[in-house]
Each structure stands twice: as C-alpha cells, then as structure tokens.
Amino acid sequence: MKRKITLKQIARELDVSISTVSKALRNSSEISEDTREKVQAFAKLYNYRPNNIALSLKNRKTKTIGIIIPEIVHHFFSKVISGIELVANKKGYNVIVGLSNESFDKEVINMEMLANGSIDGFILSIAKETLLQQDYHHFNETISQGMPIVMFDRIVNDIKCDKVIVDDVKGAKKAVAKLIENGCKQIAIITTKDYVSVGRLRTQGYLEALEDHKIHPKASLILKVDDKLVSEDYLDVLENEIEQLFKQNKKLDGVFAVNELYAITAMKVARKFGKHIPNDVQVIGFTDGVLSKHATPSLTTVSQHGQKIGEKAAELLIHKLEHEEEEERFQTVIIETDLIERDSTK
Amino acid sequence: MKRKITLKQIARELDVSISTVSKALRNSSEISEDTREKVQAFAKLYNYRPNNIALSLKNRKTKTIGIIIPEIVHHFFSKVISGIELVANKKGYNVIVGLSNESFDKEVINMEMLANGSIDGFILSIAKETLLQQDYHHFNETISQGMPIVMFDRIVNDIKCDKVIVDDVKGAKKAVAKLIENGCKQIAIITTKDYVSVGRLRTQGYLEALEDHKIHPKASLILKVDDKLVSEDYLDVLENEIEQLFKQNKKLDGVFAVNELYAITAMKVARKFGKHIPNDVQVIGFTDGVLSKHATPSLTTVSQHGQKIGEKAAELLIHKLEHEEEEERFQTVIIETDLIERDSTK
DNA sequence: ATTCGTAGCGAAAACGTTTTCGTGTTAACA
DNA sequence: TGTTAACACGAAAACGTTTTCGCTACGAAT
What we know:
The structure is a homodimer of 346-residue chains.
Chain A: H1 7-14, H2 18-25, H3 33-45, H4 52-59, E1 64-69, H5 75-90, E2 94-99, H6 104-115, E3 121-124, H7 128-133, H8 137-144, E4 149-152, E5 162-166, H9 168-181, E6 187-192, H10 197-212, E7 222-225, H11 234-248, E8 254-257, H12 260-272, E9 282-286, H13 290-294, E10 300-303, H14 306-322, E11 332-335, E12 338-340
Parallel strand pairs in A: 1-2, 1-3, 3-4, 4-5, 5-11, 6-7, 6-8, 8-9, 9-10
Antiparallel strand pairs in A: 10-12
The first copy, chain A, binds a DNA duplex (30 and 30 nucleotides) through helix 2 and helix 4.
C-alpha cells in the first residue's frame, strides 16, 4: 500500500526544494528546462496528483457544490441532480448531496454540516416542513456568510438568491385549457394543500384557465390532498379521497392532477367507476416521470424539464462563484413547461 | 457579509493564543475555567464552527464518502443512495456523488477527481462499459493507495474489496418457481446480454428453477435484449423484440423479466395480443420500483431492497474506515430478495 | 574592476486546525 | 531559602499546497 506521493517527498527524492517542484509541475518559467523535465518525469512515474484538500484550504475554494433536496427517490429530483452534475462536472466541480427528508431539522443540520468550508455554494429545494414553519434563518445566515444559494422548484421569494422555477401557473393553465378545448365540461383538480407553493400555483393556473373560458369553478371539483402523512396507507387514503371526488361529481369528465401519482391514481379510480380513458374522462398530470410514460394508458403530462432546471441552477451558481466581483443582483429564471400529449387525452 | 470566524480571530480579540482558544473550546482541563467560559461565550456569540477543510487536512480524513453510480435517475440507485446517506449521516459522514453514465471514461475521471484527498472511501456500482471492457485498473489503483472500496450490485469478483449484492440467482429462481407453481407451462425470460452480471445471474436462476421442476429450457423462450442502445426508439425496439417473442411462442403463459421496464412492456405487448393478465399470462419482474407498484395490473416483483443494500454498503465502508488496524479481509454480503406478490400473478 | 541584470532556485508565509512540548508563575513543602 | 509540583498558557510543528520574496552566482555592461 503506497500512500499518495506529495510535493515534499518528490522534493526530497530529487534533492530540490518544495517550491521548485511545485513550480516545475506548473511549468513556471523560473525553473530550468532540465529540472522541469526531471521533476515532471518523476511526478508522472509516481502518478503525482495535488491533494484537493490542501488546495481547498489554500484557495479557500472547494470546487464543490452542495445540494440539499427533500428526497432523492423521486424522478424529478434525480433528474435535477443529473442536470446539476452534468454542468458541474463539465466545469470541474463536484456535487455533494444532503437529504432533508422534508424535515426542517435535517435541512438545517445538513446545511450546517456543509457550510463549514466543505462547499462553495448551495443548490436546494426547500423541505415541506420548512415551508410550513416559514423559518428561513438558515438560508439567510448562510447567505450573509458569503455563501451563495440557488433555489429551485420549491422556493420562497424574499430570500436574496438566484432561483430557478417552472412556470407552474402557466403550465397548469396550458393543461387545463387543453382539457377544455378537448370538450371537458366538468374538470376537477387534484392538488396539495396551499402551503406547498407549487400546489398553490398550479391551482391558480387551473382557476385562471377556467376563468379564461368563462367557466365557474366549483368547490366540489377542487380536491386538496394533505400529503403530510407519509404513512403506509397513504395510497389508500389518497384513493379514497379521489373516489369521493368522483362520487360527488357524477359528470366529471376531466382531471388535472398536480403530480404523477395523483394522476394515475385518478385513472385507476376512474376505471373502477367504469369510465373509459380518454373517452369518458381525460386526465393530465404534472411532472413528466417514468410513471406517466409507462402507465396504461400513457399519461398526458406537463413536463417541467428537471434536467434543464438542474443545469440552469448549476450555471447560475457557478457563475456567481466565479464572478464574485460583479455587483450583487439576483435573477429568477423560469423554465418553460411543455405539454406532452399521450393517450390519456383525446 | 461577515466571513466565518476563525480561531485566530477569536484569539486576537480575546488576547490569548490560538492554542488556548482551541483547547478552551474542546474543554481541555489545561485551561482555567475563567478563560474557558470567556472563550466559549465569545465563540457562541460569533457562531464559531471549525473549518472542515482544515480539519480534513490535519486529520487526513474527510469524513466524506464518494459514490459512483451509472445513473441517478433510476429507482434502484436512488434507493441505494438514500440508504447510504442515512447511515453515513448518522455517523457524521457526507456523501458526494459522481455519475458514470455507464461510461468507462467518466467512471475513471470521476474516481480520479475524488481520490485525491476529497473522500475517505468509495461505494460504487460498475458502469456497463467498464464491465464490457473488463478494465479494472482504476479500482485496483485506488485500493492500492489505501482507499477502501465497497461495490454493490454490479460487481466483479476478483477485486480486493467488500461487496454487497443481491442473490440474483436465488431471487430469479424464486420468481420462476412461483410461476411454475401457479401453473405456467411456457415461461419466457426477458433478460440482458450476458456481460451484465445481474442479467447473467438472473438467467441462471431461471434455468435452475426450470431444471428443478424438470422443465426443458427452450431457446426461443429466452430473449436477451441488447441494452447498449440508449437511442430514442429504444422502447420501440424493445417492444418489437417482445412481440416477436410472443409470436414465436403462441402458448406463452408466463414471463419473468429481469427489470421493471421489460416486465411492464411485456404486459403491454400481452394485452396487445389480447391476452389477459394474470389469467392468460402471468408476469413477474425484478427490482421493486414505482413502476411495479403503480402499473395496471400492479406487478409482482422480486424486491432487491435497494435501501438496505445502501445501508449495508455504508456500514461496511465506515467500519473499514474506522478500524484500519484490523487485518484485511473482505466480505461479500448478500441481501435477500423478497417476492412481492401483486396482481400480475394468480 | 565595479555595477547591474538575470537565471535558477530556496525559504517562508499563508490557509485553519490540533497537539506536543515547553515556560513562567505561584503555592506548597522541606 | 531553595526545591518541587501544579496550573495556565503560548510557541511551534504538522497536514499539502501556492506564491512572494530574497538570495546567489554568473555573464554582460560600464
């Protein structure tokens, strides 16, 4: 077991100083060609690589990005990571991920763990619990220590950082408009409680689309699911609530769901009630993941381009890291959604 | 913007030496109660946190684990990460992830990027391209530099490291035995080319199950899909091949697929041929992900417990990191699979 | 012969810690 | 009074780099 070789060891072996070795390896003109070649040959032979930690300490840059997300077993989030990793890697950065599990405490702990020098900046999406408690001191403290943050998807507006979001309102509006154009008269929305910003915004889009087409919203058509519960029978509860929705609205002929799971569950329930999709009921979901693609019938969805969101977030962060001299101004980038039409709509 | 405070700054402010501050904060008995309290109060006020990078350099430990996986947008892998993160975090470790995208070069580059001091050890699953080329020098080099590796799922045997695998043979065997017990006479397997070890092993399990029940394997019932192609029409190609399978075997009444996608595609094709599931054809998949759970009908699968694999891998690695004095011996832990029965079997 | 410039290299500081090994002061003891 | 022990603290090294500055020696210029 040969430990990694250091400058000091090379210096000792070749009987020169550490500075000489360092300079020789970086092709400094201070060093004679003789010495340079000698050092470089030796370094190559022993496969010398500068120690990253030492470099980080010296440069006070780690070339590492910290990602904090609520969960990783989730198509959207892993797509985002994928995008971040892509551009980060291209620019010589590593990514280190922390999971909050939707918990405020874990979010705080994770951030503290990383903020002490391990990383240069954060890319994150806020935990539900944090959104609920509306306690954002950890973000503000991190920022005030000079560590930039980029938020995506689940954001809160009055924090001084760049943000990458999807136009939830517009995306939802597009989807619901599609349903209306396809002839749906009674369109339900299955959404989350309002404290989840994306749920709230998509609901808003739903309402706006109705309004645009002079349709009066009906309270019984709006189902706000409480997704705080992560219990085992969560799925049953969900299914039950959706069944109620169908029972209360016999003439339901369109469903807009704010995520994949709600959408396919709605399809399942519809089938249970003997409705054919898309002939009797048309369904559109939000977030284009594996489920939508491979469901039967395949699901028409609003794609939010998770990969692109990740790429953009990484670009914003790295730009900020490498142009600290620029005056501070923060942008909110909106990634356009696309409606991907499949077989759950006509 | 107040930069993070350091020992040196505290020392200067309180007019004591750096060592005194350090000791005071670590409650050394060398320091008088007076000074200790003074220092701790000051440190708390300014929210002092030791700089991780400096600690890493000093201790030559980063308390960080490097993960290299082929892709992250994949239920199994994200489950594994989830498990790793869980136990890593509990033990004060961070995780830093690199994606190989199934490419040999990216795998090598990623490992080199992390091996220079950024992490203490690796947990990884080998890229397909690497398995194909059978070039494992980067693993061996890393190990010979004293950096432990734990491999999971896609492993290669003759590398000196701990391994966590699923009993692919046994899992497959269980599944196929189930089909046989359920009355299937003509059982097909949809698998990958043999260089992917998990595909090979699951095929082996399939054959063993048949043999156990005195059933002669038929070549036409074995479909080895080439999943090197990641093209856009990959799905179509897959579907086509499976259609051929059904056409060539009119009396096909059972399908064992080595992953979710193959399984639900098989269900799709079966439906297309007018076969009812599970009455006419029963299907079992491998890897219990979202697709299986939410497919219609829901899919009976062999669950490989990705989370548990991750947890075990992390435990092995951390143990090795924290007990370097122990004699070197490497274990291969086998995580048992479970057959999760759902609606695609009788 | 003296000054100057320059090529080639080394010493040392700095990044932020921890830890070992002094060192000075005071109190206790012979 | 002189010795010792305990106490409280500081200096410095070390982790592995990069970089600034200084030094030496030698050839060229005056």
